[in-house]
Amino acid sequence: MTHQSLHWEKEMWAAGHRVTRQRALILDAVCAADGHTSIGEVYARVRRVDTTIDRSTIYRALHLFVELELVLAADTGSGDILYEIRKLQPHHHLVCRDCGGEQEIGDAALRMMFDDVSRQHGFRVETDHLVMFGLCHECVRAREHHVVPGT
Fold this sequence. Notes:
The protein is an alpha+beta fold. It folds into 2 domains: 3-85, Winged helix-like DNA-binding domain superfamily/Winged helix DNA-binding domain (Arc Repressor Mutant, subunit A); 91-145, Dna Ligase, domain 1, CATH 3.30.1490.190. Helices cover 44% and strands 18% of the residues.
């Protein structure tokens, strides 16, 4: 998935923002991760191409991209924010607290829960990118058998 499939330039113009070379480089750097990426990783990728772009430019651009829903931001629970290009279909992530493994799941897996929240609490869930933390199958098994995963 790349930002080109999102027609990001049109979305920027429609929202009254300029399309700049720096913003294109920053989106390219997010795409290059092919999934979640940290601001440090985005910064390193951008700096390989253009050393004049500073961290504050990257922060501002990522904030704008998240606001325009071109990029999704996920709190990892450790204080880090990870970024990824919005996909055409909403999705969510299961993150293992032990091994750090991540599994992507489709929106349908949580849609029933979102609908229940709406019915029971009158609250319409509008998230299309939820990160849930727990233990993966391998780490659950390892804890149950007191073995180290991968051995």
